[in-house]
Amino acid sequence: xxxxxxxxxxxxxxxxxxxxxxxxxxxxxxxxxxxxxxxxxxxxxxxxxxxxxxxxxxxxxxxxxxxxxxxxxxxxxxxxxxxxxxxxxxxxxxxxxxxxxxxxxxxxxxxxxxxxxxxxxxxxxxxxxxxxxxxxxxxxxxxxxxxxxxxxxxxxxxxxxxxxxxxxxxxxxxxxxxxxxxxxxxxxxxxxxxxxxxxxxxxxxxxxxxxxxxxxxxxxxxxxxxxxxxxxxxxxxxxxxxxxxxxxxxxxxxxxxxxxxxxxxxxxxxxxxxxxxxxxxxxxxxxxxxxxxxxxxxxxxxxxxxxxxxxxxxxxxxxxxxxxxxxxxxxxxxxxxxxxxxxxxxxxxxxxxxxxxxxxxxxxxxxxxxxxxxxxxxxxxxxxxxxxxxxxxxxxxxx
Length: 399
Hints:
The chain is of the alpha/beta class. It contains twelve helices and 14 strands.
């Protein structure tokens, strides 16, 4: 389909409903409402090929793509397999990641830092978070990370967490415990002053909260928090080689498109604007920053001087592998979690911090930024400008 944006919204509605055991009816109703626009660009070979609870073969095909991934869908259902290759040979090792140290104390920033970004990854039992400092040219420093509640251990897994959100809020249900934890953690991160080595204090520039799991709770938090101006719901979307890059999305009133991210207009009364970013691009971008040597532009480094304290972080960073895919005239590294499904939550958090830095204004030298959207004028504004133009021309004629 040519309208990727509507299908992204469809995928979110379908995913949220399935996670909360509401079935696929909401997604189907969304497709029914926007079917003409969502079917544009498709050529259907077998119109009858869909399940009774689906409205068309196009919807059925897109459901298969969402359930099985783009590469499997292309190969098994379209008979047009993408050319793929793994990039394992170029991956960093755990020692290389843990040893990329700035020598700066935890929670401290170098004098060059201009922005501070944070990201919170939401789960039933824990909230993972990271905080990064950034210069305007994308020099980066990971200055803090952890979980709420704190596990008081240097190495642990989500599955075996000994202190959980429910323990901190006795009597609360799953959603109540998550909301209470988010309230505490966002206040802690945003209220804190982050000190640079030159004595200057920086406040949080932007804190993103993953809205892919408990969407309504995150949107409600970001809308009603006393720190609402610095909070924003977000959702990562992996755009493969067959997908349309964000830079090519059609701009509509209320959208803001940036460097492999965009801010959508409110979806409905309960869900305000939120940030979507291409996780495949930003994971590759992050790994490239880790490969840059200390002192060179665009380098990302970790706090402290002891590699052992970052073993957990390094393992999260290595939980996924890039699979190089080719399609639609371009090559994309699609990041896939390893078969044993290790924890990757701190990786997701740092990726979110990196996208947030771009939102704040950080630009890596040599990268191409998308053109600014054209400003759409109302009829009243066009009439006002025409009136002023006639008046200026009249004054020149009189003189």
